[in-house]
Amino acid sequence: MSTKQSKNNNLFYGIISGVFFFFIVLPILVIFKEALDAGGLGDLSNFLNTNTLKSIRNSLSLGVLVVLATTMLSAPLAYLLAKTPLSKYKWIDIVLLIPFMTPPYIASMGWILFFQKKGLLEQLVPISATFNSYFFSLGGLVLVMSLHLCPFMTTILKNALLNIGDNLEDSAAVAGAGFYQRIVKIYVPLLLGNYAIAALLVFVKTLSEYGTPATLGARIGFEVFTTDIHRYATMSPIDFGKAATLSSALVSICLVMWLVQSYITNKRSYNLVGGRSKASGAVVGNKSSIVVVGWLYLGGIIFCGVGIPYFSVLATSLIKLRGYGIAIDNFTFAHYQELFVAGSAGLSAIVTSVFLACSAATIASILGFLTVIVLQKKSKFKKLIESEVLLPEMIPNIVLVIGLMILWNKLYSYWPIYNTLGFMVLVYTLMFLPYAYQYTYSGYMQLSNNLFEAARMSGASSLQILQKITLPLLLKSIMTGWMMIFIIVFRELVAASLISPPNTLTVSTYIVSEFSQGSVSLGMSMAFICVIISTTVLLFLNRFQRKR
């Protein structure tokens, strides 16, 4: 390559890096500048006041408790799905993903409706009224968030267990080691690195979560980072300085956690070789007893993670008059019909959410594909561009949204897109660009260079290779990313509640609005449609990926 071509390439990559810097990195820097201007970072009194300290303490304690509770739920489940006869039932993996794919705020509303006074559980089991109130506590909040994150940690631990050959456990059993000795001496040391990664990610996800603290946490007066940031940015008097101060603290903690996770991944993880493990029978008791115990435990997890919230949402959506409770003659589909009446707020919210989801998913998928293609050429800007593209994945969504709000509010006189649907599309595109990039990049890494070399030898131009080889082979990866982005944007809450234009509702803000204003059945009708769409897309994605 000539010096002139090299300079042109560097200029091209520099421009791309500058564009991503403006749209992704600059909003984060604006948050820190806003915090400095407000005295938030330079004056410790802003962090030492009672409300801020309480928010920080609540967030960190909630993160630790959710990690511990998620571990208690996930560790036995991962072992059952990797080292016992339950591992042959592939449908279990799909069912266990449902709680993770269910919007947390909808699951929280389901739990609230189930345990509240005169709620569904009390109607079904009147004696439960004596202990229902115990759910509305920090313990209940931890339980709901742990059930949501349980599939995430379970998947990481299960995949690690599958890479541990059964010969290790069999040898220990032959040597006389009991079940608990084998767990402590074999599995705990080998899984420590993977568990540390999973625990750190669960901790970060807990700190970043808004939906559950905003619904269930608000009922018990438990304020955390995200709810305080949201309150400062939306409730009068609006204080972007305090929102930026808390955001800067939150993003700093999350980035430190990501650095620790990266260190553990590179330095403290074992490379376990031995192929996919099969159940060997080297478990406590005989196979029939472990299967019975396993099914009971799995049933309990599914009942709590899927059964309770889905039953609550569905039952409430069908109730005609809440005062009459659960009764056959008190069920109606009128709430669902009302959602689709022409000109109704519900139909408008659905149309708006579909437009936002389609637009953001399409733009992000195109940008992700082009970025992957462009970064295949060597450049000193390659690592920088990749880091910029993946940055939104490493910081809480609410922080990125706050940064974009502050930045584009300052730029309003030059480019007045703030407070419009176009701005919402921009925000969602930037938030989920990492999804599109990673799915496309994963697919590209599976392509052999021989394909491209053969095409070049046949005289194909770069554009022809892109059209005839690269794009067709990557289409499934691109569509997988598109569907994931679509379903997440369709039901996303935090950005919609912060940046929706006046008198504009999305599916998520409609649900929250109806739930908080008393039209619970109408809100749960929309929520049930939302979770059914999420589950359907999850099943379709699973089948789509199996065919790849």
From TrEMBL:
GTP-binding found in the keyword field: no
Domain ABC transmembrane type-1 residues, every copy: 56-261, 350-541
Pfam families for the chain: BPD_transp_1 (PF00528)
Gene3D superfamilies according to UniProt: MetI-like (1.10.3720.10)
Keywords: Cell inner membrane, Cell membrane, Membrane, Transmembrane, Transmembrane helix, Transport
SUPFAM superfamilies referenced in this protein's UniProt entry, alphabetically: MetI-like (SSF161098)
Main location, first listed in the record: membrane
Protein family (similarity comment): Belongs to the binding-protein-dependent transport system permease family.
Protein name: Iron ABC transporter permease
Organism of this sequence: Candidatus Avacidaminococcus intestinavium
